[in-house]
Amino acid sequence: MFPSKALLSIVLIALSAVDASPVRREAAPTLAFNARMNARASDANIADADRARAQAMINASFSKRAGSSSFSIASAVTAYTAQVGVGSPATQYTLLIDTGSSNTWVGANTPYTRTNTSVDTGGSVSVSYGSGSFSGEEYLDTVTLSSDLVITGQSIGVAKNAQGFNGVDGILGVGPTDLTQGTVSNVGLVPTVTDNLYSKGAIGTEALGVYFVPGGGAGELTFGGSDSSKTTSSVNYVPLTTTSPSSEYWGIDQSIAYGSSTILSATAGIVDTGTTLILIATDAFDKYQSATGATLDSNTGLLMITSDQYANLQTLNFNIGGTSYGLTPNGQIWPRSLNTDIGGSSDNIYLVVNDIGSNSGTGLDFINGYSFLQRFYSVFDTTNRQVGFATTSSTSAVSN
User: Fold this and answer.
1) Over the chain, what HEC string results?
2) How many degrees, rounded to 5, is the angle at CA 101 between CA 19 and CA 70?
3) Does residue 304 contact residue 291 with C-beta atoms inside 8 Å?
4) 134 near 208, Cβ under 8 Å?
5) Residue 391 near residue 231, CB atoms below 8 Å
6) CB 382 within 8 A of CB 289
7) Which candidate, 24, 31, 42, places its Cα nearest to that of 342?
8) Residue 195 designated active-site
9) What are the backbone dihedrals phi and psi of residue 229, each rounded to the nearest 5 degrees, phi first?
10) 95 neighbors 48 (Cβ within 8 angstroms)
11) Could you give the CA distance from residue 41 to residue 165 in angstroms, rounded to a whole number?
12) CA 180/CA 178 separation, integer angstroms
């Protein structure tokens, strides 16, 4: 299910910050994590899987039932996993890392082991993720991310029932705290692992830095700020959008231009590690397809171009807070070494920009997913209610 060539290491860094802005530090304790490329395991292609997640996010804002504001990541093509210890002595669990959901839970495969640090709160917990779900009991327990990141009294879900989580034990939720509303029976909001790292003084700013490398190379998560050794520019921050439903997640405002031609006027959308592609509103996608001359490939669900069309691709410019982030032609194509992993041909050239499934005006008109984030460093800053971006050495890479 998970090709070994697609394994990528993610390093988690704990930083202490005292400034109002996330601290940038050259060195800090690290822990290796893994991310894996899910082979195509069902009839849903890569675009369908991302689109289903996007539509669930849009629809969630119109539903108030418990657990409705989290979405499928179990079927995502790109899955980032961390070995997380729970209890004392700790049992190790393989958890999916997700910025689009916020509950941390275990027990989908490896059973939860109670120790003397385990406290049953008596609360029930239930979260729906679109194509997957879990329900069970809430416990407070010690969660160990690394020797420098140990959280006592962390709320965790212990699954009695879980669907759609083959090969993993649960989720490490690092999304906004509001996404936990209504998921646990005896409380309103549930503090996330990032909340508790901040409240217990392990980090000075409640922020998460994310760094990936194109084509399945090494990456890094930074709790408490950003890592200046991974950036080639300063981090530029923009406030979270006030437009719903994007405002319920890591939402921002941006416009997109293909070359000098605007294809998506300024609007709200989200930044999301759980989405593999870059999704844009249908009307913008149609303009992009027309401009590139691409055709739709039925096997992968991706746009496909010829070598001549690739040679003529223009930069896709994301205007965020007055700063333009240019996605190069190479940044717009799927890594060719991974073509067969998504049901494609090894000789074809596929584009990573796809249709979100609805026209602009929904309040969630784009998702800057992994294909964008592998080219730009990102910081999710809860303390200052902002998201930041910076260029990296991978911004102009030609590795795809």
Assistant:
1) CCCHHHCEEEEEEECCCCCCCCEECCCCCEEEEEEEECCCCCCCCHHHHHHHHHHHHHHHCCCCCCCCCCCCCCCCCEEEEEEEEECCCCEEEEEEEECCCCCCEECCCCCCCCCCCCEEEEEEEEEECCCCEEEEEEEEEEEEEECCEEEEEEEEEEEEEEECCCCCCEEEECCCHHHHCCCECCCCCCCCHHHHHHHCCCCCCCEEEEECCCCCCCEEEEECEECHHHCCCCCEEEECCCCCCHHHCCEEEEEEEECCEEEEEEEEEEECCCCCCEEECHHHHHHHHHHHCCEECCCCCCEEECHHHHHCCCCEEEEECCEEEEECCHHHECCHHHHHHHCCCCCCEEECEEECCCCCCCCCCEEECHHHHCCEEEEEECCCCEEEEEECCCCCCCCC
2) 145
3) no
4) no
5) yes
6) no
7) 42
8) no
9) -75, -15
10) no
11) 12
12) 5
Tokens at 357, concatenated: 């499934």
With beta carbons less than 8 A apart as the criterion, state whether 354 and 285 touch. yes
Which of 202, 183, 184 shows the shortest CA–CA distance to 193?
A: 202
Residue 299 corresponds to which tokens in the numbers above?
């096997």
Tokens representing 243 are: 């437009």
Would you tell me how many other CB atoms lie within 10 Å of the CB of residue 137? 20
Looking up tokens 């008109």 gives: 365
pLDDT per residue, tens digit, the chain (400 aa), is 333 333 333 344 433 333 345 544 433 333 445 556 654 444 568 899 889 888 878 876 544 333 333 344 444 556 678 889 999 999 999 988 888 889 999 999 999 999 999 999 999 999 987 567 899 999 999 999 888 889 999 999 999 999 888 889 999 998 899 999 999 998 899 999 999 999 998 888 899 998 887 666 556 788 888 889 899 999 999 999 999 999 999 999 999 999 999 999 999 999 998 788 999 999 999 999 999 999 999 999 999 999 999 999 999 999 999 999 999 999 999 999 889 989 999 999 999 999 999 999 999 999 999 899 999 999 999 999 999 999 999 999 998 8
Can you tell me which residue has the tokens 């050259």? 26
Q: Residues 98, 297, 355, 381: which is the catalytic one?
A: 98
First vs last Cα of the chain: how many Å apart?
22
Q: Which of 50, 169, 272, 381 is catalytic?
A: 272
Q: Can you tell me the distance from the alpha carbon of 118 to that of 307, in angstroms, rounded to the nearest whole number? A: 58
Tokens of 191: 């503090």
Catalytic residue status for 178: no
Q: Which two tokens stand for residue 234?
A: 């300063």
